[in-house]
Design goal:
heterodimer, A: alpha/beta, Rossmann fold, four-stranded parallel sheet, 37% helix, B: alpha+beta, Cytochrome-c3 Hydrogenase, chain B, four-stranded mixed sheet, three-stranded antiparallel sheet, 15 helices, 46% helix
Chain lengths: 262, 426
């Protein structure tokens, strides 16, 4: 890939488009990014573009919530060397997947009187439909991982994504542990790092926006929350805000008696 | 004769844009050209059902969740939701919090306007498909844009922890307050882009705006003093003057079969406009004298009824916004404070000026602090009907243009409104 610029396609599914904004407007290396890669398809950035590919890298943002998205995603997979989900929605379901907690039609009926035109399906992350080659996590996606991904591509090396929990970053910043010291329900121990322990550094507990850390022990943290006096509902909500469809956080999403009472 | 006319018309009976580029979110539009112009703005952005799944979430999660409605105006959604939740649950905040919120909101409005003016709108007026290819000829403009945007993002990030989806803002106030040194640093940077800001107005003056008049009602927030952003009353240049609590009685939302976004209308029928132009039409006298002078130099008619002038209005808000930020930081002294929030059951709504115009959130919260009902009406829902009407009028007035030009003109018009389709289908 060294003799030409890598061809990149950016695709958007159900999300706020913040990751695309992060890519094209918000990060510190905007001009360098544009100079070193060939963004062939990105509707937020430019008119036209070739949707059919081929792409060296396809960046996918957003949760998959429509059937046409699944079909397009499979096509993209077949014409792309690397497929990388960007941001929590694509990586682990993110906020749009909160709707999975209830029956689809119940949620839909609250918003639309006429649901006949709605074709929405249960929210899934990208890797639940196609194999992926890495994740740029974060909500919005982390700048460090993005830069690492682009530079690795240019250098032809394997990207070194951050794979440790937020706790590590708190220690590196000499933060007081808000979970242990203040009894705040911090999601840091089960959440992937990369934000620089943003919330604990700003006097609040981590709410898990970067999604699950691989092999996280969600059960242990949920039990700890229960010992601290959080209600079952509150624990459930903490583990479903950003990682509803994930295996890692499922043990925290078990509702016991409270759900029966309703 | 009939048949021949028919043949030539075949290629230009319809303008169909199946995926409008350089706007936030996904939309298509169809314009029928022969006979009566027929128009549909097909917002196919997939619905995410925020109002549906917010039910059952805690009052202090709402701000974090709704900021994910929009990647370009997260602060607006977050602030509006938190104001509404505070109203519903009876949480009170300090004066410092209110001032900081204003600073927070303005910083994002300026950044959002810059992104729209340079990245989304400018390529149209200079004949480029996007900003990427423009670096060689418009290096100066792009340099200015990146410089200013970085300063504004720095300010938003300083208050919120990060510029996109901030973390410090909760019902009751901010969890952490930047210290005076940090504010001092940003203040210096803000002062350094003052000259750039005036250049923004000149850059926008270079756009050749089509001569197009589309009078309608302009709705904005208006308060007793200053250029109201958060709070105030909902007013219009045609005599509307209501408290935010009366919103539901005056603004009606309706569903249309071809779009996932809902349309909003005053009194169920009137077409109205929100956004920078509407704000200027309602409270031009509240801008700084210098900004008003710039408006005169830029030749912005006052009040204005050309939707393309929304870009000019945005550039004036950039100048004014930066001055307001400087003034707030210079005059206020921010100190750390504790957040006390003990929610009670209740319901309440709040309206703010998002970059794209009037934004309304309403929540009903139970005694455990859990949301029972939610309602969100975004600026693009407010503008939906007027965009459609203006497109129709534009096409009627320019029937003789060739199809490619007319298509570009239509795209320019939609972009001039700076619509956010992600927001509109939340």
């Amino acid at each position: 890939m060294s003799d030409r610029k890598p061809i990149i396609g950016v695709f958007k599914y159900s999300c706020c488009a913040g990751c695309e904004f992060q890519l094209i407007f918000f990060q510190q290396y905007v001009l360098e990014t544009f100079g070193s890669v060939d963004i062939r398809y990105c509707r937020m950035l430019q008119s036209g573009g070739v949707e059919e590919g081929p792409f060296d890298v396809a960046l996918i943002e957003g949760t998959v919530t429509e059937e046409w998205q699944v079909e397009q995603l499979r096509k993209i997979r077949s014409v792309s060397q690397y497929v990388i989900p960007i941001g929590s929605c694509a990586v682990c379901g993110g906020v749009p997947a909160i709707k999975n907690n209830e029956q689809e039609y119940v949620v839909q009926n609250r918003v639309y009187a006429d649901t006949s035109k709605i074709t929405s399906i249960r929210a899934h992350s990208v890797n639940q439909y196609v194999p992926v080659d890495g994740y740029i996590k974060g909500c919005p996606m982390g700048e460090r991982d993005l830069v690492e991904c682009v530079t690795s591509l240019l250098l032809g090396k394997r990207p070194d994504f951050i794979q440790y929990p937020v706790c590590i970053e708190c220690k590196l910043k000499y933060n007081i542990c808000v979970l242990v010291a203040y009894n705040w329900p911090c999601m840091g121990p089960v959440t992937n790092a990369g934000c620089g322990a943003l919330c604990p550094s700003h006097d609040r507990e981590c709410y898990g926006c970067w999604g699950p850390m691989r092999d996280a022990n969600a059960r242990a943290l949920a039990d700890q929350f229960a010992r601290m006096g959080l209600s079952e509902d509150d624990i459930f909500r903490r583990f479903t805000e950003f990682g509803e469809p994930t295996v890692e956080w499922k043990p925290g999403q078990v509702r016991r008696w409270s759900v029966v009472q309703k | 004769m009939e048949a021949r006319a028919g043949e030539t018309v075949v290629s230009r009976t319809k303008i169909e844009i199946d995926y409008l580029a350089r706007v936030e979110g996904e939309t298509a539009f169809v314009v029928e050209l022969n006979g009566v112009p027929f128009l549909q703005l097909k917002i196919f952005e997939p619905p995410r059902f925020f109002e549906g799944f917010l039910v059952g979430r805690r009052y202090d999660e709402v701000g974090d969740i709704v900021s994910r409605i929009c990647g370009i105006c997260p602060v607006s959604h977050m602030t509006t939701a938190i104001l509404a939740v505070e109203k519903a649950t009876g949480i009170e905040v300090s004066e410092q919090t209110t001032i900081l919120r204003r600073l927070f909101s303005i910083s994002q409005i300026v950044a959002s306007h810059l992104v729209h003016l340079y990245s989304l709108a400018m390529p149209d007026y200079h004949g480029y498909p996007g900003i990427v290819g423009m670096q060689d000829r418009f290096g100066e403009q792009i340099g200015r844009y990146v410089r200013m945007k970085n300063v504004m993002n720095l300010l938003t990030g300083l208050i919120g922890g990060r510029p996109l989806h901030p973390v410090t803002h909760l019902p009751g106030g901010f969890t952490s307050i930047p210290n005076q040194d940090e504010f001092g640093e940003v203040l210096e940077k803000l002062k350094s882009i003052r000259a750039d800001a005036e250049q923004v107005v000149r850059d926008v003056m270079e756009f050749e705006f089509p001569d197009f008049h589309a009078p309608c009602e302009h709705v904005a927030l208006h308060g007793p003093q200053g250029y109201t952003i958060n709070g105030g009353r909902i007013v219009s240049d045609r005599g509307l003057d209501i408290a935010v609590d009366e919103y539901d009685a005056h603004f009606k939302e309706s569903e249309v079969p071809y779009a996932f976004a809902k349309q909003s209308a005053v009194g169920g029928s009137s077409v109205f406009r929100v956004g920078a132009l509407a704000r200027l039409n309602n409270k031009f006298d509240r801008l700084r004298e210098h900004t008003r002078l710039l408006a005169k130099q830029a030749g912005l008619p006052q009040p204005g009824d050309n939707p393309f002038h929304n870009n000019l209005a945005q550039s004036l808000e950039v100048v004014d916004g930066i001055e307001q930020c400087i003034q707030i930081i210079e005059s206020a002294k921010f100190e750390d404070e504790e957040i006390y929030a003990s929610p009670e059951a209740g319901e309440g709504g709040a309206a703010t000026e998002a970059p794209r115009g009037l934004l309304y959130h309403w929540y009903k919260v139970d005694r455990k602090g859990v949301v029972e009902q939610a309602k969100i009406v975004t600026p693009t829902s407010h503008n939906f009907r007027v965009i459609e009407r203006d497109l129709k009028d534009l096409v009627t007035q320019h029937q003789d243009l060739d199809k490619a030009k007319l298509q570009l003109l239509c795209e320019q018009l939609v972009r001039a409104y700076d619509p956010c389709f992600s927001c509109s289908v939340h």
